[in-house]
Specification:
The complex is a heterodimer of chains A (323) and B (124). With 323 residues, chain A is α/β, with parallel strands linked by helices. Chain A is 66% helix and 8% strand. Chain A folds into two domains: 185 residues, Globin-like (Orthogonal Bundle); 112 residues, STAS domain (Transcription Regulator spoIIAA, 2-Layer Sandwich), CATH 3.30.750.24. Chain A has 14 helices and five strands. In chain A, helix 9 runs antiparallel to helix 10. The termini of chain A are far apart. Chain B is 41% helix and 18% strand. Chain B is built from four helices and five strands; from the N terminus they run ββαβαβαβα. Classes of the chains: A alpha/beta (323), B alpha/beta (124).
Chain lengths: 323, 124
Amino acid sequence: MAEGKVTWMSQAIPHQMEVDEEDVARRKEFLEFGADDAQALKSLAEIARKYAEPVIDEFYEHILASDETKSFFQDPKVLERVKRQQKEYFLRLTEGDYGPEYIANRLRIGTVHERIGLAPKWYLGMYAFYLRLVGKRLLEAFSADPKKAFSSFLSLLKIVFLDIGLAVDTYIHAREATMRKQQEAIRELSTPVLQIRERLLLLPIIGVIDTHRARLITDSVLRSIRATRAKVVVMDVTGVATIDSKVANHLIQTVIAAGLMGAQVIVTGLSSDVAQALVGLGLDLAKLNTAGDLQGGMEEAERLLGYRVVRDTDGATGGARPA
Amino acid sequence: MPVPIVKQGDVLVASMQEALTDRALLDLRDRLSDQVGRFRARAVIIDVTALDVLDSFATRTLRGIAHAARLRGARTVVVGIQPEVAFAMVQLGLTLDGIATALDLEEGLALVSQPRREGAGDGR
């Protein structure tokens, strides 16, 4: 027991999911899973071993009969291995010890299900089918004492629901982890600062700007100005549908701060809605240097930097193009 | 230690190396104002690269230096404001109205050596 405590608590998944001994105890208490249930389940161990093989076989017949669940077990070798593990899994239900090692094992299996893409509906459906099979066998085994069969079944139900609770939590946990990772990725991708000419930066902003993102934008703009020695920054907000007063203020502050660092910011692509909202907010817009669209902003930026873009009329580099 | 003022041609360069006390700031203001006239300087560059904070008094003194220098015939450029400092100043509402700013000393020198032209940040 003692060593089980050390190993399972230190595993990443229970730790991240905040499933500790206290949590497990609360779960068991809520299910009213007590020592008598553990005892009752343990007394089923012999019956379970006797029926394990036929039950598993019937169970897999059912799984393989359905297209959705069949696809998980295409390789016969995999099928053999999974069957063996499944047998262990079910036998484990009647071993009478539902301590930390048991919990860790259940969490691990939930994680595996999530990873191979076995949706909870199939997991639950399979468990329900299994319970039906076991229920039938229990009635057969205790044909002389149906009451005992039913009470054992209820004990089994409790431990099964403990299992299901843990498995569902691992599903949710895995999804949440994926979502967090994606949000992180979006955040990183969302504030690119591109150098398109020497001393000229382009900052295309697309999507919703919240306070957090506005702060990221400020930070990366000011840092990029220093890193690339930029003199002009074109901030294109064509892809921004709405701006609230807090964010607008923040962007204006960014523009002024860039000015303190010797760089000029040209804001382009303010949509009609955003422009009217900004006016409506009564913000001090005199400090914003704007251009109608990105092209206008680029032309203004090039003018400020002294660039002159000349079209190559000879068409020597493939410029020949119908007028 | 007083802020060293280096004369380079007709440009005066004052480079702040550490956070200044209010007294040292006022001392810098007086000496710059004096030397602008003495050396017939055309421009003053104040380098704040080493500073990680510019408070309201420092900002006000910088404005004072710039305005006084302008009255005596020189323009002032503040260079090297760090990103964090710049944003903190804006959030606190500290502005350098009417003073030109540039990224670093090199930019500042380039700015004062060219004929007056709109374009570079003017510290609005």
